[in-house]
Amino acid sequence: MELNRRTVIAGAAAAGLAATALGGTAQAAGRHPEGGRPVKELFGTLPDGTKVHRWSLANGGTRLKVLSYGGIVQSLELPDRHGRYANVSLGYDTLEPYLTGTTYFGALIGRYGNRIAKGRFTLDGTTYQVPVNDGENSLHGGPEGFNTKVWDVEPFTSGPDVGLHLYCTSPDGEMGFPGTLRVKVTYTLTRHGDWRIDYEATTDKATVVNLTNHTYFNLAGEGSGSIYDHELWLAARRYTPTDAGLIPTGELAKVAGTPFDFTRAKPIGRDIRTGHPQLITAKGYDHNFVLDKGVTARPQHAVTLRDPHSGRTLKIATDQPGVQFYSGNFLDGTLTGTSGRTYRQGDGLALETQHFPDSPNQPSFPSTVLRPGRTYRTTTIHSFDV
């Protein structure tokens, strides 16, 4: 019999209470009670002495741990069809690997998510140069992007929901970008267990903005092996092919008849080694998918990911026009995760809701320009089921 999420969550909560009564250490109780106020603890210290804290939240059967450094999702725990919890996000047990790593595990990404060709763009007649950190291109805002900032964190409860407000200010000229950008990101766990991300930003000078989150998912549990048997559905009949540097060529290519067709759910590994030139260039999937819905006023369901073994399912709704699907191509066995196991190629995947890569240099792509007096707003909702 296939159980629904509410039944599974109730069973898991009962098991947690029983374990607590017997002196156990079930995470369902105590440190982050369902719907209770987020709990703060010291996670580590930066070389300059700045303290980094970890915030633990739980609601609706979902458990989330977030670092003030980079707004990083350090852990995301979900029950399987039998009520057994596992951390389904890749990450580290300590702070130091986050400081030296280049994988962006769980991080908030900005000012500009994804790539800008040669780190250069022209806006209102002025050319700006962003430091390059991915070959000859800029990736995720440059080497000192938002993933390296210590964010100010404010916990909140709102009716049945709990969450965190994260704040940072990027001064004019930081990483080469124009304008002082004031950013607020809100992580909310709803009473249904949904994880909602709301992004806001304002500027005092015309600039480009493309914010996203870089959580790597493995719905079987991090460290459990590859995600190639996960089934993925994308509401995208087109994608943006890239050159050798993974910069879009400008073409909006049809997915039909190619390995990039996820308009019907299929295992990620089914076509990943077919020898398609785009898959060879990226060593797997690392491409922007053009969502059929385009930019929308409200989030719409556009992605479904399912692990057939655990039964865990992730659905993503967004108002953004694209999603970057990255199949963990550059995980090489040198990184050890929270489970104590190493991460190898394909052991996690990212689904980054965003505008298209290199949009500042591609006039035919949706614009990422933000001007004074306007507010950048976007929302992505992750819903979980079994």
Cα Rg: 20 Å
Number of DSSP strand runs? 30
Please tally the helical runs, counting DSSP H or I stretches of 4 or more residues. Answer: 3
- What general outline do the C-alpha atoms trace? globular
What amount of the residues lies in strands?
35-45%
| Low-pLDDT residue spans | 14-32
What helical percentage do the residues reach? under 10%
> What class, by secondary structure content?
mainly beta
Arrangement of strands in the largest sheet: 11-12-13-14-30-24-23-18-21
Average pLDDT reading: 93
Largest sheet: 9 strands, antiparallel
N-to-C span: 12 Å
Secondary structure layout:
Layout: H1 5-21, E1 39-45, E2 51-59, E3 62-67, E4 73-79, E5 85-87, H2 96-100, E6 108-109, E7 115-116, E8 120-123, E9 126-129, E10 138-139, E11 152-158, E12 161-170, E13 181-189, E14 195-203, E15 207-208, E16 212-213, E17 216-217, E18 231-234, E19 238-240, E20 253-254, E21 266-267, H3 277-282, E22 286-290, E23 300-306, E24 313-318, E25 322-326, E26 335-336, E27 342-343, E28 349-354, E29 369-370, E30 376-385
Antiparallel strand pairs: 1-2, 2-3, 3-4, 4-5, 6-16, 7-10, 8-9, 11-12, 12-13, 13-14, 14-30, 15-29, 17-28, 18-21, 18-23, 19-20, 19-22, 22-25, 23-24, 24-30, 25-28, 26-27
